[in-house]
Amino acid sequence: MIVIDTESAETIVRSLCNIFKISETDLKILYMTDEHFEFLKSNHEDISLDGFYQLVKSADKLEDLKSYIEDLYVTSFHLSKRINPIEGNEKLYNLHSALLSETEIKCFFENHDIIFEKQGTKLKCIFKGQQVDWENFYNTEHRNVARLVANRLEGNLFYNSDNCINGFLFNHNIVNQSNVVHLSKSPEIVQNILEVLGLKEAIQEYNTNCLYIIKYRVKFIDFIFDTNSKLSNEEKFENLLKRLLQFLAYSLTNSETMISNPIVRTTDDLDVEPSDVCKFELVSI
Protein backbone atom coordinates (compact mmCIF):
# COMPACT_ATOMS: atom_id res chain seq x y z
CA MET A 1 0.00 0.00 0.00
CA ILE A 2 1.32 3.44 -0.98
CA VAL A 3 -0.18 6.33 0.98
CA ILE A 4 -0.01 10.06 0.41
CA ASP A 5 -0.46 11.30 3.97
CA THR A 6 -1.81 14.87 4.00
CA GLU A 7 -1.83 15.29 7.78
CA SER A 8 0.94 17.91 7.81
CA ALA A 9 3.83 19.36 5.83
CA GLU A 10 6.09 16.72 7.35
CA THR A 11 3.91 13.78 6.30
CA ILE A 12 3.47 15.22 2.80
CA VAL A 13 7.24 15.51 2.38
CA ARG A 14 7.78 11.94 3.55
CA SER A 15 5.06 10.65 1.23
CA LEU A 16 6.38 12.38 -1.88
CA CYS A 17 9.95 11.33 -1.15
CA ASN A 18 8.86 7.73 -0.69
CA ILE A 19 6.92 7.67 -3.96
CA PHE A 20 9.48 9.45 -6.14
CA LYS A 21 12.61 8.12 -4.41
CA ILE A 22 14.04 11.58 -3.75
CA SER A 23 15.62 12.95 -0.60
CA GLU A 24 13.76 15.16 1.85
CA THR A 25 16.59 17.68 1.61
CA ASP A 26 16.26 18.00 -2.17
CA LEU A 27 12.50 18.35 -2.00
CA LYS A 28 12.70 21.01 0.71
CA ILE A 29 15.28 22.94 -1.29
CA LEU A 30 12.84 22.91 -4.21
CA TYR A 31 9.88 24.48 -2.43
CA MET A 32 11.98 26.65 -0.09
CA THR A 33 14.16 28.32 -2.71
CA ASP A 34 14.09 28.27 -6.51
CA GLU A 35 10.48 27.26 -7.02
CA HIS A 36 9.09 28.82 -3.85
CA PHE A 37 7.30 31.71 -5.57
CA GLU A 38 6.01 29.40 -8.29
CA PHE A 39 4.24 27.32 -5.67
CA LEU A 40 2.89 30.42 -3.89
CA LYS A 41 0.61 31.25 -6.81
CA SER A 42 -2.90 31.70 -5.41
CA ASN A 43 -4.48 29.59 -8.15
CA HIS A 44 -2.99 26.11 -8.01
CA GLU A 45 -3.90 25.52 -11.66
CA ASP A 46 -1.33 28.17 -12.66
CA ILE A 47 1.50 26.31 -10.93
CA SER A 48 4.11 24.72 -13.18
CA LEU A 49 5.47 21.31 -12.19
CA ASP A 50 8.56 21.64 -14.39
CA GLY A 51 10.84 22.19 -11.41
CA PHE A 52 9.41 19.20 -9.61
CA TYR A 53 9.78 16.96 -12.67
CA GLN A 54 13.35 18.13 -13.08
CA LEU A 55 14.01 17.13 -9.49
CA VAL A 56 12.78 13.60 -10.10
CA LYS A 57 15.01 13.58 -13.22
CA SER A 58 12.14 13.10 -15.68
CA ALA A 59 8.40 12.55 -15.94
CA ASP A 60 9.17 8.84 -16.09
CA LYS A 61 8.60 8.75 -12.35
CA LEU A 62 5.03 9.83 -12.96
CA GLU A 63 4.67 7.14 -15.61
CA ASP A 64 5.91 4.58 -13.10
CA LEU A 65 3.26 5.70 -10.67
CA LYS A 66 0.51 5.09 -13.21
CA SER A 67 1.46 1.42 -13.36
CA TYR A 68 0.58 0.82 -9.73
CA ILE A 69 -1.98 3.56 -9.23
CA GLU A 70 -4.55 1.07 -7.93
CA ASP A 71 -2.35 0.59 -4.87
CA LEU A 72 -2.20 4.33 -4.13
CA TYR A 73 -4.21 5.81 -1.25
CA VAL A 74 -4.77 9.43 -0.20
CA THR A 75 -5.79 10.64 3.25
CA SER A 76 -8.61 13.11 3.82
CA PHE A 77 -10.31 14.65 6.84
CA HIS A 78 -14.02 14.46 7.60
CA LEU A 79 -15.79 16.68 10.14
CA SER A 80 -18.43 14.65 11.98
CA LYS A 81 -20.95 15.64 14.64
CA ARG A 82 -21.90 12.78 16.96
CA ILE A 83 -24.43 12.40 19.76
CA ASN A 84 -22.27 9.82 21.51
CA PRO A 85 -18.47 9.62 21.79
CA ILE A 86 -16.65 7.45 19.27
CA GLU A 87 -15.19 4.32 20.83
CA GLY A 88 -12.53 2.75 18.65
CA ASN A 89 -12.32 3.01 14.88
CA GLU A 90 -15.76 2.87 13.32
CA LYS A 91 -16.85 2.51 9.72
CA LEU A 92 -17.35 5.86 8.03
CA TYR A 93 -20.67 5.66 6.19
CA ASN A 94 -21.90 7.50 3.14
CA LEU A 95 -25.25 9.22 3.61
CA HIS A 96 -27.50 6.42 2.39
CA SER A 97 -25.65 3.77 4.38
CA ALA A 98 -25.76 5.95 7.51
CA LEU A 99 -29.54 6.33 7.25
CA LEU A 100 -30.17 2.64 6.53
CA SER A 101 -27.61 0.93 8.80
CA GLU A 102 -27.69 0.58 12.58
CA THR A 103 -26.15 3.96 13.32
CA GLU A 104 -26.89 6.65 15.87
CA ILE A 105 -28.30 8.93 13.19
CA LYS A 106 -30.75 6.22 12.09
CA CYS A 107 -31.79 5.67 15.72
CA PHE A 108 -32.16 9.41 16.20
CA PHE A 109 -34.57 9.70 13.28
CA GLU A 110 -36.51 6.61 14.39
CA ASN A 111 -37.04 8.25 17.78
CA HIS A 112 -38.79 11.05 15.90
CA ASP A 113 -40.90 8.65 13.80
CA ILE A 114 -38.75 9.07 10.69
CA ILE A 115 -37.38 6.13 8.71
CA PHE A 116 -35.80 5.76 5.28
CA GLU A 117 -36.30 3.23 2.49
CA LYS A 118 -34.16 2.59 -0.57
CA GLN A 119 -36.05 2.76 -3.87
CA GLY A 120 -33.65 2.27 -6.77
CA THR A 121 -31.01 4.99 -6.47
CA LYS A 122 -33.28 7.13 -4.32
CA LEU A 123 -33.74 7.24 -0.58
CA LYS A 124 -37.35 7.85 0.42
CA CYS A 125 -38.24 9.42 3.75
CA ILE A 126 -41.19 8.04 5.73
CA PHE A 127 -42.57 10.35 8.42
CA LYS A 128 -45.26 9.03 10.76
CA GLY A 129 -45.98 6.20 8.32
CA GLN A 130 -46.39 8.46 5.28
CA GLN A 131 -43.89 8.85 2.46
CA VAL A 132 -42.68 12.44 2.25
CA ASP A 133 -43.01 14.22 -1.08
CA TRP A 134 -40.50 17.05 -0.82
CA GLU A 135 -42.12 18.85 -3.75
CA ASN A 136 -45.07 19.57 -1.47
CA PHE A 137 -42.80 22.02 0.35
CA TYR A 138 -41.54 23.82 -2.76
CA ASN A 139 -44.19 26.55 -2.36
CA THR A 140 -43.57 27.10 1.35
CA GLU A 141 -41.02 29.08 3.33
CA HIS A 142 -38.95 25.88 3.47
CA ARG A 143 -38.73 25.51 -0.31
CA ASN A 144 -34.96 26.06 -0.56
CA VAL A 145 -34.16 23.61 2.21
CA ALA A 146 -36.67 21.09 0.84
CA ARG A 147 -34.91 21.18 -2.54
CA LEU A 148 -31.58 20.57 -0.83
CA VAL A 149 -32.99 17.54 0.98
CA ALA A 150 -34.62 16.18 -2.16
CA ASN A 151 -31.40 16.56 -4.14
CA ARG A 152 -29.34 14.76 -1.50
CA LEU A 153 -31.76 11.90 -0.94
CA GLU A 154 -33.34 11.47 -4.37
CA GLY A 155 -31.29 13.42 -6.91
CA ASN A 156 -32.79 15.44 -9.75
CA LEU A 157 -32.97 15.53 -13.55
CA PHE A 158 -29.26 16.34 -13.81
CA TYR A 159 -27.60 14.47 -10.94
CA ASN A 160 -28.08 11.32 -8.92
CA SER A 161 -28.60 11.53 -5.18
CA ASP A 162 -25.69 12.86 -3.15
CA ASN A 163 -24.27 9.67 -1.71
CA CYS A 164 -20.59 10.21 -1.04
CA ILE A 165 -18.35 11.01 1.91
CA ASN A 166 -17.12 14.60 1.91
CA GLY A 167 -13.94 15.79 3.52
CA PHE A 168 -10.97 18.14 3.24
CA LEU A 169 -7.64 17.34 1.68
CA PHE A 170 -5.58 18.79 4.54
CA ASN A 171 -5.91 18.73 8.30
CA HIS A 172 -5.69 22.51 8.36
CA ASN A 173 -8.12 24.98 9.93
CA ILE A 174 -11.04 22.67 9.22
CA VAL A 175 -13.44 23.77 11.98
CA ASN A 176 -13.18 27.39 10.81
CA GLN A 177 -14.06 26.69 7.18
CA SER A 178 -17.09 28.80 6.29
CA ASN A 179 -18.96 25.90 4.71
CA VAL A 180 -18.83 23.70 7.84
CA VAL A 181 -19.27 26.16 10.73
CA HIS A 182 -22.95 25.18 10.92
CA LEU A 183 -21.94 21.58 11.73
CA SER A 184 -21.22 22.65 15.31
CA LYS A 185 -24.93 22.04 15.89
CA SER A 186 -25.72 18.88 13.96
CA PRO A 187 -25.16 17.24 10.56
CA GLU A 188 -26.55 19.41 7.78
CA ILE A 189 -28.94 16.74 6.52
CA VAL A 190 -30.37 16.34 10.03
CA GLN A 191 -30.94 20.08 10.37
CA ASN A 192 -32.57 20.31 6.96
CA ILE A 193 -34.94 17.34 7.32
CA LEU A 194 -36.07 18.41 10.78
CA GLU A 195 -36.63 21.98 9.63
CA VAL A 196 -38.80 20.97 6.67
CA LEU A 197 -40.83 18.52 8.78
CA GLY A 198 -41.41 21.09 11.51
CA LEU A 199 -39.17 19.44 14.11
CA LYS A 200 -36.50 22.10 14.53
CA GLU A 201 -36.54 21.76 18.32
CA ALA A 202 -35.19 18.23 17.94
CA ILE A 203 -31.92 19.67 16.62
CA GLN A 204 -31.04 20.56 20.22
CA GLU A 205 -30.52 16.87 20.94
CA TYR A 206 -27.37 17.06 18.84
CA ASN A 207 -25.94 19.99 20.81
CA THR A 208 -23.17 18.09 22.58
CA ASN A 209 -19.41 18.42 22.42
CA CYS A 210 -18.90 15.36 20.24
CA LEU A 211 -17.43 17.02 17.18
CA TYR A 212 -14.69 14.99 15.55
CA ILE A 213 -12.14 15.37 12.81
CA ILE A 214 -11.84 11.89 11.33
CA LYS A 215 -8.75 11.06 9.29
CA TYR A 216 -9.34 8.37 6.70
CA ARG A 217 -7.71 7.03 3.57
CA VAL A 218 -9.27 6.03 0.27
CA LYS A 219 -7.93 4.55 -2.92
CA PHE A 220 -6.76 7.22 -5.31
CA ILE A 221 -9.17 5.91 -7.95
CA ASP A 222 -12.03 6.58 -5.47
CA PHE A 223 -10.71 10.03 -4.51
CA ILE A 224 -12.38 13.03 -6.17
CA PHE A 225 -11.77 16.78 -6.05
CA ASP A 226 -15.22 18.27 -5.57
CA THR A 227 -14.66 21.10 -8.05
CA ASN A 228 -12.77 18.95 -10.59
CA SER A 229 -14.75 15.73 -10.68
CA LYS A 230 -14.17 14.96 -14.38
CA LEU A 231 -10.38 14.65 -14.27
CA SER A 232 -8.63 11.53 -15.51
CA ASN A 233 -6.43 9.74 -12.99
CA GLU A 234 -3.33 11.33 -14.56
CA GLU A 235 -4.86 14.82 -14.49
CA LYS A 236 -6.07 14.24 -10.96
CA PHE A 237 -2.61 13.24 -9.79
CA GLU A 238 -1.03 16.34 -11.31
CA ASN A 239 -3.74 18.43 -9.66
CA LEU A 240 -2.92 16.74 -6.35
CA LEU A 241 0.81 17.41 -6.79
CA LYS A 242 0.13 21.10 -7.36
CA ARG A 243 -2.05 21.24 -4.25
CA LEU A 244 0.59 19.49 -2.14
CA LEU A 245 3.47 21.69 -3.29
CA GLN A 246 1.36 24.81 -2.83
CA PHE A 247 0.57 23.68 0.73
CA LEU A 248 4.26 23.08 1.46
CA ALA A 249 5.24 26.52 0.15
CA TYR A 250 2.56 28.37 2.12
CA SER A 251 3.38 26.42 5.29
CA LEU A 252 6.74 28.24 5.35
CA THR A 253 5.18 31.70 5.31
CA ASN A 254 3.29 33.81 7.81
CA SER A 255 0.26 33.55 5.55
CA GLU A 256 -1.04 30.11 6.48
CA THR A 257 -4.57 31.55 6.39
CA MET A 258 -4.05 31.77 2.62
CA ILE A 259 -3.71 27.99 2.36
CA SER A 260 -6.49 26.57 0.24
CA ASN A 261 -8.03 23.43 1.72
CA PRO A 262 -10.07 21.89 -1.08
CA ILE A 263 -13.17 19.84 -0.47
CA VAL A 264 -12.73 16.26 -1.62
CA ARG A 265 -15.11 13.33 -1.75
CA THR A 266 -15.32 9.64 -2.40
CA THR A 267 -17.04 7.94 -5.28
CA ASP A 268 -20.75 7.33 -4.73
CA ASP A 269 -21.91 4.48 -2.50
CA LEU A 270 -18.48 4.00 -0.92
CA ASP A 271 -18.16 3.36 2.82
CA VAL A 272 -14.77 3.68 4.51
CA GLU A 273 -13.98 0.50 6.42
CA PRO A 274 -12.62 0.73 9.99
CA SER A 275 -9.21 -0.44 8.77
CA ASP A 276 -8.99 2.69 6.61
CA VAL A 277 -10.03 5.06 9.39
CA CYS A 278 -6.63 6.29 10.57
CA LYS A 279 -7.63 8.27 13.65
CA PHE A 280 -10.28 10.54 15.10
CA GLU A 281 -9.79 13.71 17.10
CA LEU A 282 -12.33 15.29 19.43
CA VAL A 283 -12.31 19.05 18.85
CA SER A 284 -13.76 21.87 20.91
CA ILE A 285 -16.72 23.84 19.58
Give structural notes.
This protein has 285 residues and is an alpha+beta fold. It folds into two domains: 2-75 and 214-283, no CATH class; 76-213, no CATH class. It is built from ten helices and ten strands. It has helices spanning 9-20, 24-32, 36-39, 50-55, 60-67, 95-100, 104-111, 143-154, 188-196, 233-250; strands at residues 2-4, 72-81, 114-119, 122-127, 130-131, 166-168, 211-219, 223-225, 263-266, 277-283. A four-stranded mixed β-sheet has the order 1-2-7-10. Strands 3-4-5 form a three-stranded antiparallel β-sheet. Strands 6-9-8 form a three-stranded antiparallel β-sheet, with no helix packed on it. β3 (114-119) and β4 form a beta hairpin. α8 packs across α9 (188-196). The longest helix is centred in the last third of the chain and has 18 residues, at 233-250. The chain is elongated and about 65 Å long. The mean pLDDT is 88.
